Amino acid sequence: MNRSSHLLVLGIALALGVMLSGCTTVGVKVWERDILATPYMQPDRHSIERELDDHIYFSKEGSSGGRGFGGGGCGCN
């Protein structure tokens, strides 16, 4: 092997190492969880907005309830 092929292998190994180590810091730290648990960070903190969304879902899809599930009212999920 010549010098350019050694550099190519080294570059590929370095790029692979950088790509694999990029996901090591994904997630919420323990000291950040209290901020995310505040009522301000909840997606449905306004009761009027939640009721309007429920009315729209009921009117368009003919279904009610099931706020925690993905998909629509067609039963295809």
Describe the structure in your own words:
With 77 residues, the chain is mostly helical. The protein has helices at 3-21, 33-36, 47-61. The termini are far apart. The mean pLDDT is 76.
Based on Cα principal axes, name the global outline.
Answer: elongated
Uncertain segments are: none
Straight-line distance between termini: 55 Å
Count of individual beta strands: 0
What level of helicity do the residues show? 40-55%
Q: Main beta sheet, described? A: none
Question: What's this, in brief?
Answer:
Helix content is 49%, strand content 0%.
Q: What's the helix and strand layout?
A:
Layout (H helix, E strand, L loop, with lengths): L2 H19 L11 H4 L10 H15 L16
List keywords for this structure.
77 residues, mainly alpha, 3 helices, 49% helix, elongated
